Structures are given as C-alpha cells and as structure tokens.
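cron nightly-structures :: item 1 of 1
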Amino acid sequence: MKVAILAHGDADGVTAAAIAKSVLGGDVHFTHPVGLLEDFRSYARGADLVAILDISLDEASLSALRSEFRSFPGKILYIDHHPMPPHASIEAPNVEVVHEEGPCAAELAFRRLKPPRGMSRVALYGAIGDYAVDTEWVRAAMAEWDIKSLFLEAGVLVLALDRIGRNYEMKRKVVEELSRNALPSSVPGLLNLAAEQARAIEEMRLRIPQLVKARELIAYVVEPGASVGLAAFYAAVEAGKPVGVAVEERKGVYAGSARARDARIDLNAALRAVAPRFGGSGGGHPRAAGFRVPIGKFEEFLSELERALAEQLK
C-alpha cells in the first residue's frame, strides 16, 4: 500500500507524522492550511492512503479541497485539533475525520493509530510543544515516564525544529528517527540546533523593548529575528497588552503569529474573519493563531483586527 503523509512542520505535526509513519510507513511531506490543496494534488497522486495531520482547514480553498477529496480514488485520514471553520465539512465515504479540540494532533494520532506503547512519549513531545498537556490521556501517559527527561527531550525537539525552519529534508530525517522512538537529543545535530535557537530567542527577548510598537489592544513586532510565536508573546508581555503580534516577510507578504493573554479573546475567530478582507488568511487556536497578509495592508489589517478584538472584550 502506498501511503502519503501530509503534516504541519511544528513539533505537534512532526510527532504526529512520526506516529503515523511508525504504523503506516509512507513518505512524509510538510504543508500548511493555505498550501494544503496544491500539496494534496501533488503528493497524493498514486497513493492508496493519505494521512493529513495537524492542518487546519482554510475557508478560501475549502470547497475545492472538499471536491478534491471526494474525487480521490484512495482513502484519506484527516486528524486535527484546530477549531473547524463554520459550516465546514469534508466528510465523504473515503474520508475519515478524527477531530477534537483540546488534545494535540499527536495525541489524536496515537489514540487512533495505536502504535506500540513506548511511542506515547513521542506524542507527549507534541503535547508539550503545543501546550496541550491538560487532557486525561496526557496525564495518564506522563505518569509512565520520567518527567524531567520528557521535558528535556521535548524542549530539544521544539527548539531544534524552530531552528530548522523550512529545511524540510532535515525535518523528514527527524520524523524518521522519531518514528523509531529515538530520543531527540540522540538525533545528530539536534542538541546544537536547540542550543542555537535558545540563544537566538534570548537575544530576541532582550531586543523586544526596542522593537515593540503598541496600539490600544495590540503590541506588535516586525522582523523579530527568531520565533514569531514567542516574539508575539513577549511583545504582549512587554507592552502590557492583551494581544501580541509578530510578523516576518515571506515573498511579499507578512507571515505572522498572534498570542492572546485574555481568556475572552478568540484569535482563531478574529483572524478568520479579518485576514481574508485584506487578501490574506488566518486561523488556529483561540489563544494562539497564525495569519498571512500583504505587507502593504498590514496597518489596515491591525486596525480591523483591533476592532474585532474590542467586540470580543465587550
């Protein structure tokens, strides 16, 4: 059976891909919500089974994606934990959807695919990396491992993957090692990469006070020089705002991350509503989400996002 695995490139996606590969075998490819349609067309060709892991659904391409899925002659296993777009459905006779908010995708992949028991620690790396540790399964699984070593290995993996960035060939090698339940610290080069990223993040954190710009509800940073997710978090902390945003340029657009410090805020809903008005896209989780917008529309986008956040805080 020919298997194709399409996964997100962060720690949760990588660990979910490793779990899937340990059970199903196959080739691993990395994608993201906006690119899923084209990547599915490219990498699913000739496959008997396609596993799609930790990729939220993009509303702009949802209709075409649904059509592509339904015409696909093989089977599709879609495992994800992001909030679904309103009225979204990809259900079809050849599509199995495993969706649950709260657990990370790696936990859902472990529970659905049932790899050997020892692979639970790989799923736990994904849970720690995605801040999805408050589930019954995670609590039970953590009780079977030394927590100090577990968090050390998860930290090495998360930081190294951040450093690797879009070097997908190297990420495939990491998936291969994790699919054999190798410790991240034993994978050649990962410890050094994690240490480099830790230093880069600390240097970025120290620069944030000079880089951050503050609006009424949003603190933001352009080109922070390291993890945009952490830059968004530190920007909000530094400026004392409920939301932090950080962006970096990618081919004429700003790819960004947003973090919320107020439980009343739903960034997923706000970004899904606002970003498409400016020719962009957005979504993720209520407290942590990503987006893409044209560079020339960024200030207008921030103004509209702030209006949406103000409505949520009323």
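cron nightly-structures :: done
The first strand starts at residue 3 and ends at 7.
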